[in-house]
Design brief:
Length: 136
C-alpha cells in the first residue's frame, strides 16, 4: 500500500465541488485515511510550494492556495501516487484528459481544483508538513 497527499483547493470549495471530487477518489477505490479542512497560513502555503519558489507564478499561487479553506487528505491505495495523478489529470487544461477531475471540471491553469503528490519523497514530505500529528 502506498500513501499520497491530496489537497482539494479553495476554488473547489467556492464551486461546491468537494463532494464531486471525493466521490471520484472513492469511486476509484482509494482509501481516505486522514482528512481535515483548514485555511493554510502563508508559511504553510509557501513551504508546500517551495519547489516553485522563484517562478513567476509562485506568489499568485501562494495567494490562491491560502485564499480560503482547503480539504487536506492522505489517500491510500496500491500505486496511489501515480494513479491519483492520473485521476487528477494533467496540469495544463489543454492536456487534462476528459474523464479526469481537471479535464472534466476546469479550464484554468492556476485554479485547477486539486493537488496530488508527484513522487514518494514529496508524498512523505507533504504528509509530514500537513499532518505532523501522524508522525510517529
Ligand atoms: P501539479 O499541481 O499538476 O503538480 P505543478 O507544476 O506542480 O502542477 O504546479 C503547481 C500548481 O501551480 C498547479 O497545480 C497550478 O495551480 C499552478 N501552476 C502551475 N503552472 C502554472 C502557470 O504557468 N501559471 C499559473 N499557475 C500555475
Ligand atoms: Mg506539482
Amino acid at each position: 500500500m502506498e500513501r499520497t497527499f491530496v489537497i482539494i483547493k479553495p476554488d473547489a470549495l467556492r464551486r461546491k465541488l468537494i463532494g464531486e471530487i471525493i466521490t471520484r477518489i472513492e469511486r476509484r477505490n482509494f482509501s481516505i485515511v486522514a482528512m481535515k479542512m483548514l485555511t493554510p497560513s502563508k508559511e504553510l502555503a509557501e513551504q508546500h510550494y517551495v519547489v516553485h519558489k522563484g517562478k513567476e507564478f509562485f506568489d499568485p499561487l501562494v495567494q490562491f492556495v491560502m485564499s480560503g479553506p482547503v480539504v487536506a487528505m492522505v489517500v491510500e491505495g496500491e500505486n496511489a501516487i501515480k494513479l491519483m495523478r492520473n485521476t487528477m489529470g494533467a496540469t495544463s487544461p489543454e492536456q487534462a484528459a476528459p474523464g479526469t477531475i481537471r479535464g472534466d471540471l476546469t479550464i484554468s491553469l492556476q485554479e485547477n481544483l486539486i493537488h496530488g503528490s508527484d513522487s514518494l519523497d514529496t508524498a512523505n514530505m507533504e504528509i509530514d508538513l500537513w499532518f505532523p500529528e501522524l508522525k510517529g
